[in-house]
Structure formats: C-alpha cells, structure tokens
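Re: duplicated header lines in exported structure tokens

Our pipeline writes sequence and tokens for each protein into one text file. With two proteins the header for the second block appears twice in some exports. Here is an export where it did not happen, for reference. First protein block:
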Amino acid sequence: MTGVIRLFRDEKGFSLIEIIVAVILLGSCFMLLATLVHQNSLAIQLTKRKEEAAFVREDIKEWLLYKGQIQDIAYLNNYVFVQIQQGKNLTDKQIARRGHLILDNTGIQRDGSLPVYGEVEVKEVDSKRGNFVRKVKYYPTEANFLPEKLRSEVNQLYIGEYLHGTKGTDFLVEIQVSTPETNASYNPRTEGVDLTILVYDKKNGSLLTSTVLNWVIDS
C-alpha cells in the first residue's frame, strides 16, 4: 500500500494530481498573459492609427481654409452652392452630389467629356498663383478600390484616397455637406455650409475620426 502511495508523490511529497493541476494553472496564466499582451499591442496600434488619422483630418481642415484655393474648391463644387428652386424634386444622384464636396479633378463625374454637375476643373499648375496642392484622389471607376465595408455606388464617387505629397496612403477621406435649405433666404456662399470631414481606414473601412467645419467661401 505504501508503495502505491509513493507512485503518486514526487520526492518533495506533492501528489501527481497536484502537479497536474499546477501545470494547468501555470499554462492558463501564460495564456492569459499572452492575451493581455496581444490586446495591449492592438490598443497601442489603434491609438497610433487614430493619432495619424487625426493629423489627416486636421490637414484637410487647414487645407480647406487656405484662402488661396478656397475658390478653386468652390468652383469644383458649383452644384453644392447653386440655390435650387423651391419645390423642385432632385434625383437621388443629385441629392448625393449636393451632399458632398469633391477635392480633386479626379472626382468630377462626366457625361462624355462634359462635367455632369457643372464642375470647373482646378488648374493644377499656375505660374502666377502657384501649383494647386492635391490632398485627395478619387477612383470612381475602380470597383475594388474601397474596402468591402464601404462599397456602395455613392461611396465610390465621394470617398477618395488621402495623398501625402504625390503618394497615396492607407487613409480615405469623405467630405459630407449639410445646408439648411428650408430657409428661403439662405445663401450658402456667404453664410457657409457645414462640412463633416470623415477619415477612414483604407484596409478595413472603419471610421477613425471626424470633425465638423463651417465653410464660408465668400466672406
């Protein structure tokens, strides 16, 4: 009987069951520690990603407020500032166009060679005024450009890739427009429109940051 008991005890007197339980607990602790380390790493990456997105957001915001090119962007978005006759019904596509700014010639929708919504192309190279600083590039005909989460007919037209210099990045930008058109005397050019600047992750389509800007083009 004594010999049987010894089979279940090590030299220090621990039973085999106690050793097994200790090993299981130790393994669980290591797994928990590894999970915590992984979660902490993901949290750090997400924080860094959001900080980078905040830089993109503020860069776009400052760029929109740069007096030297406000009119260029306004001409690129004439349809947003046209006062629509009261009672006129707009199509879904027209509503979408009035609800977004485009920030680059690549966002112009065309019927043949003519702009659909009266956009005036930005002169990117001007010896007198200097070159137009590009910040966003659009890919309206590339169906797989956007991550699956963001794919829709409207997003394809109005979400573009943020540019760092002339190179693309892994951030996407959308500018939504809000105007109080219920007020008949409202003039969007002098009273401003509310712009919502949204920055998305190009890899997974998640919204990283956003801000609202009241944008006045004729002050």
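Second protein block, exported in the same file:
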Amino acid sequence: MQSGQQQARRKNAQVLDGSDIRELVESKEAFAKFVENKFRHLDADGDGRLSLTELQPAVADIGAAIGLPARGSSAQADHIYSEVLNEFTHGKQDSVSKPEFQHVLSDILLGMAAGLKRDPIMILRMDGEDLNEFVESTAYEAEAVAIFSQIESGNASLRQCLPAALRQLTVDHGMPPASDSLVMEKVIEPALQELPADQLDRPASQEVFFQEFKKYLGVIARRLQERPIIVAHTENTFDGAGIRKILSNKFEFEKLLDSVWVDVPKEHKDRTSKKYLRVALDKLAASVNLPPYGAVDQVDAVVNEAFKMANADDGKAVNEAEFKKLLTEILGAVMLQLDGNAIAVSTNTVLHEPMSTSSTLLSPSPLSPTVSSPSE
C-alpha cells in the first residue's frame, strides 16, 4: 500500500491523458497551423504534395508516439507501419495533398487521444526518494521477510538472492523495473559491485539477507538520486462496469451494434460468419472498457470462455439479429465474470530516451502549435 507521501508524488506526476491532443485537434485554427508547419517541414521538394518517401518521417513519428519499436525491428511492427502509411494513401495513391494529410492525421491523433483517455500514462521519476522511504518504513521488515520466503532456495548466495529480491519490488516501493536493461546496467549491477564480494558469496540466511538487502537498497537509492530513471506507468481495472453501463442504455447499445454490423463482411443474403464476432468485439472494446484481444491474457481467458459458452466459434453463418444476439450474450457473460473477479493490470516501461526526443509527432507542442519545428 502506498504511503501518503507516495500518493502525493503520484498526484504530482505528469499524466498523459490525451487532453492536450484533443484540444489541439478540436481547435480548427490551431490544428490548421500545426498541419501547415508539419506539412511544410515534410514537403522536401515543395510541390504541395507528400510523396511516399516524404511521408516516411511522419509514419515513423506516429509509430514512436504509440510506442512501436523502430521500423525493421519486427514483422508485427512493420505491418503496423505499413497500415499507417496506407491510411494516408488508401493503399493506392503515390502522394497525398495537404487536406488529405490533415484529415488522416486528425483521425490518428483523436484515436491516440481516446486511447490515452481510456488508459492514461503516468510519468514517474524514480529518484530514490520513495525507495529510501520504504527502507526506513515500518513495512520494510515484514516485506523483506516475505520476499526472502519467496526467493530462498537452499544454499543460494546473497549474489543470487539480492537481484531476485529486487524483482519483487515495484514502482510503489520506488523501484524501477529490475528487468530493464538500462536499470540493470546503470543501477543494479553497479550497486551490487559496491557490496563486499566475500559477503555476497556467503549463503543467504534470513538475518543476513535482511541486513544486506537494506544496504543494497540504500546503494540503489543513492544511484537513483544521481541518475533518476523515468518510468511510464499505466494501470487499469477491468470489472465489467463499462459493459454494464452500455447494456443499461438500450438506445446507445443498439447504435453501437448497428455501427459494428455495418462494418462486418457479409456473405450472401445479409449473413455473416460467426468468426467475425471477435472482430466485432474488438471494435466494441474501447466503448465497454475492455482491452483489445491479445493485450491482456487474463481478459482473453474470460472472453474465450464467453465465446465457448455462446458456441460462437463454430464459424457458422448467421443473420443480423442472430449476430447481435450472440454479441450481446458474449458481452453479458464477460460482464458477469469480471463483476465477480475483476482483473487489475499495470505496466511499467522505462523510457530510455527523453520524452521530447522519442517522437516529434506533436512538435510543435499542442500548447504552442504555431511555433515552427526546429530545422534539421
């Protein structure tokens, strides 16, 4: 549980909730100036259109802004980059005009804003303060004992136990993700080297572990003070409330079902395969506070069970009424399961680069959209 000081620091953390992006896009004058600056910067030959080559920096920026690895890092990421490019060109054009660029960029930014509103990102500065507070708190002893009981293994040495113990700590303790390469290289390994080698090679009894782990955390806290680590933190609880809310509003729910049905591929006589139920559920996900399928294993398991109960995976063709009925049954089953067993999910990602340099998609920033991007 977080202390009052930790909660206060969380409140003071930078929160990315998409509001700045929405404000920019919804201001016609500001967004037009933003697009003008961005378009002029990309239009290298000044012909008033962006070629596929000239679009590449914008596509790369969008990828960086949504957290994709660099192009060429993975086939999955490359596929998404290609899809972003196709959004601009519709898969056919070899260049796009400024109005086309503005329209697509608006859609992409609003989509990003909606995602951030649903799952805000909290930017935490791990500077050793919270970690020191944990070490000096009354909670340390009990947690250290509990951690030791989880990692203790026969005659394991302190050198083995201490790094393993770190992996049991979270950002709530003031510890950045111990598995991250930057944290390992700049914090964990150098801190371990500061401890006496002969002590590290001794078997780790509970008493020895308790004392040395405290020293180790003190060294790590000092290193974090010298070089703070920035962590992007997200947390969400899937408890079925979003589904319950939309199901209770018959008018809005029917509109949502209609919009999904329109986009579903049809077979002859307005029938479609049940296999598109998963596609439809993904389209509904944001509206009912569910993650996209494949994003959270625990939620996927609940969804899979709901599909099984509704016999929705047999691939048979159904008409519109049957399709909507099945989708409603699936949502209801997911809601009931989550209502009784809510799923809490949090992620912590170390930012290896300063936020301002990871993507120039919103440079100039939403707060000053008329300022031109610095020249390369």
